[in-house]
Description:
The protein is built from 5 helices and 4 strands; from the N terminus they run E-H-E-H-E-E-H-H-H. By secondary structure, it is of the alpha/beta class. The N and C termini lie far apart (43 Å).
Amino acid sequence: MIIAVDFDGTIVTHEYPRIGKEIPFAIDTLKRLQQNYENQIVLWTVREGKELDEAVEYCHNRGLVFYAINSNYPEENKKNQEPRKLKADLFIDDRNLGGLPDWGVIYRVIMSKKYYEPISNEIHQEYQLSKKKGFLNNLFGK
């Protein structure tokens, strides 16, 4: 599984361009996920240049080495390349819908491989229930 992970607000607290404090268990969890050789961790961040180098070094000094950085593969050439979507199976980012779960929760969800379907089924059931109650019609004034 390819897991793309953000840096600011996800591995460390938001203090960009400085590096914030490590969010408890972030690096340890990512290192543990890497022990399963099916998982490849990609750093996916808006940081560039010196700030990116500092973030990579911060993680490296704590034993977290990424498969790739802001790219799909380590050997990807970034020169003269338009930004494109990263191919990942899972994104871990503090700005996702619902925010950043606790790193223990993240680990258990990934290892159980129940990171999409049970949630989508729950949402689908809630949607069906709200349709029956006319919630959407009331909400959108129909």
